[in-house]
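ENTRY TYPE: protein
CONTENTS: sequence, structure tokens:
***
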Amino acid sequence: MCRLALKTADIPFSPYEVLNGMEAMQEGYDGSGLGLLLRGVSFEDYKYKKEEQVILSGIAHTEAAVRRLQRLMEERGFEQDYDHRFKVNADLIESKDRYQYIVRVYKKPEGLTEKELEERLMQTRLFLRRNGEEHGNDLTVFSFWPDVVTIKEVGWPLEVGDALGLNDDRIKARVVMAQGRQNTNYGINLYACHPFFIQGIATMTNGENTAFIPIKEWLEGKNIPGYMGYQSDSEVFAHILHYVTKKLDLPLAAYKHVITPLKSEELDAHPQGDFLKGLRTSCRRLIIDGPNAVIGTLPDETCMLAMDAKKLRPATVGGRPGAWAIASEMCGVEALVPDRDPTLDFQPMREHTVIIPPERKELQIWSQFDQFTLSQAA
């Protein structure tokens, strides 16, 4: 099984803290890979400005790919402001075709609305991904977005952290998501490593989505840019969250109603039963099947956890005002936020969505049986 860990805190912290939290759960994963996604990013040697800049994350596998990336970004109107260089110990990296890990800061293009900027950033990421694939997979691009850094690599998580010098505090964040297993069902592919990202939305999953093929085909049939790839059956969770919140313009509470809707007799007694029955019908192909614990984050640093209807994968939430953790096992939460009251740790049931708001003052527990606000603006 995969093992997942997330920490969110008011004060930026090193991603190495989360890797140590992963180490507490080491018996639960095989050390075949690491995926990290950071939000609320700060650099030791550079003043990053979220309102004015965006960050590109990936790997250039050759010197030619670095030069080509520079040219392509200039041609598309992106001016580079900063190039973060990890202090790499190549001896600790299993793969030997890593020329440079890319974390580059660019100025936001001027004169675009927020929606136009979001589309421009996604299309640029997809363009760079295709370009890398056309050149023998010499360029891998994970995210291109304000305030987000994504790192993916093959190997034992703590060793990857050591290899990239993540314990030197040169890069910190207020939110760190970590997943500790490559997709070993198929060939090793960094795009198959969680967390998955699309237009500011990220998810990672512990489990197996046996409804993957019909969900994938339904999403691909929408012809929405970004609904592609699918080297992992878990990538659809990020795209469903994107579809619910970005395309249907529904609040986060609706996500659980789409992936694990209530039974008809339960909806008969629900104050929004008619609406939810219609949502279930229109999104029936997005219902998941299989054991899953889904952890997600949004652009405003909201963090969430939702379970499958059968609740066959473990997950626990715990913390205190200002610092919270979500992990596959209780020992992971203990490692990430030891100075909390453990009697208040919460393990969600099949109807729950657990929310850690960006203010991080308290935990919110939403139930599918409760009424929720339909307007995003409310």
Residues 1-33+176-378 form a domain with the Glutamine Phosphoribosylpyrophosphate, subunit 1, domain 1 fold (CATH 3.60.20.10). The chain has two domains: 1-33+176-378, 42-146. The first strand starts at residue 4 and ends at 13.
